[in-house]
Write a structure and sequence with these properties.
55 residues; 3 helices; elongated
Length: 55
């Protein structure tokens, strides 16, 4: 989720707008979990926003 927020800031989205977008994303994830009776999995929920950094 922190990576998602960093991406919003990189796009110069205002702080309040970025918080709304993260909140909307979390509500969407919750809805998906409840709709499919699936346990929350961070790797699945944020997989398309993952940025892998070399150490």
């Amino acid at each position: 989720m922190h990576t998602y927020d960093d991406g919003q800031r990189a796009r110069e989205v205002g702080h309040n707008a970025a918080l709304r977008q993260v909140g909307n994303r979390l509500v969407g994830i919750l809805h998906g979990c409840l709709d499919t009776c699936t346990v929350y999995d961070e790797a699945t929920a944020w997989s398309h926003h993952a940025h892998f950094h070399a150490a």
